[in-house]
Give the backbone structure.
Amino acid sequence: YSGGHKVAGAGHELGHAGAARFFEPDKRSVRLSVRMRSGSLGHHYNIEKEEQFVHFRSQLAGRLRGGLGAIASERVFYGDNSSGVTMDLIQCTQLAAQMVGVYGMGGDPLREDVSRKAVGFGETLISHFEAVQAQGGGDMSPVGAVLRGPSRRTVAQVLGAAYIDSWRLMNVNQEAIESAADALIAQGELVGDEVDGLLGSVGLRMFNEADPWPPAMPTIPRLDDDEERRDGEARARERSA
């Protein structure tokens, strides 16, 4: 496929791999690829270093950050994201909802101002998940019940906090990711220790408190009471038509 798509695919997969390197220390990467398979433009696959039968909150929080690494990488490099993040968003939203509503793990321990930012990002990410579910007739699963209930805001906070961390990691490692992308494109696919070798060679680092934060999502003005009433009546007429 075209060189532009290959570059974008490499950045996407390195977003996953780079985030996993820092946030999922209990796992190891076994494949990193920009070879097309079954319509996918690339692939990152990691497995647990030791077989586990239960997982702690910190591990699942790390999995969220690894899963959101791709959309964070795309937004850092392009200020936008591709349609290739759809399954990542579905899986991460489901996981965050399970953490809060099924496993009882609660929200992230954040300052109040940071928590509010996280909720804003999380709500935007959840909206993508809900749009996909709506196309299939709605979500009647336990995840859907959690998102329709009082725990939704906590799910948004957990999901948004993961996105913030992944974005900050991608942002401080732009040069390293570009170098890694060049090497990955040249090889096409890396397996086993080759993946760790590449990630270890480009100088990836964890962000610190002084490093930038992601720009806020655009704020959409709320409708006033009259506009909201007219909007509701218009939607009702459309449904009855």
